[in-house]
Amino acid sequence: MKTTDPKKIEILDCLKGGLIVSCQTQKDEPIYTPDMVVKMAECAKWAGAVGLRLNSPEQIRQVKEADLGLPIIGLYKVWHDDTDVFITPTMKEVDAIVEAGADIIALDCTSQITHEKTIAWDLLPQVREKYPNHLIFADCSNIEEAIHASQNGAEIVAPTLYGYTKNTENIEGANYRMVADMCRAVGDDAKVIMEGHLYTPEDAMKCIFIGCHAVVVGSAITRPHYVAKRFVDCLSKYQDDWRLAEKAHHTNELK
Q1: Please, which residues bridge with residue 151 across strands?
Q2: Domain CATH code at residue 49
Q3: Which residues of the chain have pLDDT under 50?
Q4: DSSP string, 55-109
Q5: Which of 3, 31, 45, 95 has its CA 20 to 30 A from that of 238?
Q6: In the chain, how many domains are there?
């Protein structure tokens, strides 16, 4: 959905060619402290990041109050045992992140079945209608889903969920050819922002080169426990799989 809204274009222009840092921490993780996500965001701002990706109304609100001047991509992760859909799965979560101050709404736009027994991407047109002034960031797992999202109201599409669905669950690295094809497939209808499986600055540069509007990097920057686990996984001859820890469901309880 190619936008003509001046405010949306201004946000998209400020993201172009830049790094968006995913600043997230869960209460059951070793790095969790009440102010950790704000410190992550401050580090991202200091480094020159052009945007932030934040999970939960609580953490969005914290960073918004810090007034860092960077656009916030908001999402709300909710896990259920009967589905792999966990990113902003219902309008309830959408309402919560908008109220908290998200500038851009991120939601699962795959063809997976939700806990509520709907198709995840069916939420997109409802969000588009309710929040016409917000940019929508469609988290997808393949080209078909990205095209569907761009045709149904999303100004931004990303292969965020490549590796997190039943059809892609054994994938570990970025699929640059698929991402390049995604850029060509959506054309001018939406901006493709690369997210997922990026571990070095060189990885990020490849994405801009093949046509992505910007890149999102999270775990490789803000999750030192996952960085360490990748090294341990390799040094232990892959007896363990660090990706299982990264994909694990989280709890809201403090450890």
Answers
A1: none
A2: 3.20.20.70
A3: none
A4: ESHHHHHHHHHHT----EEEE-B---TT-S--BS-SHHHHHHHHHHT-SEEEEE-
A5: 31
A6: 1
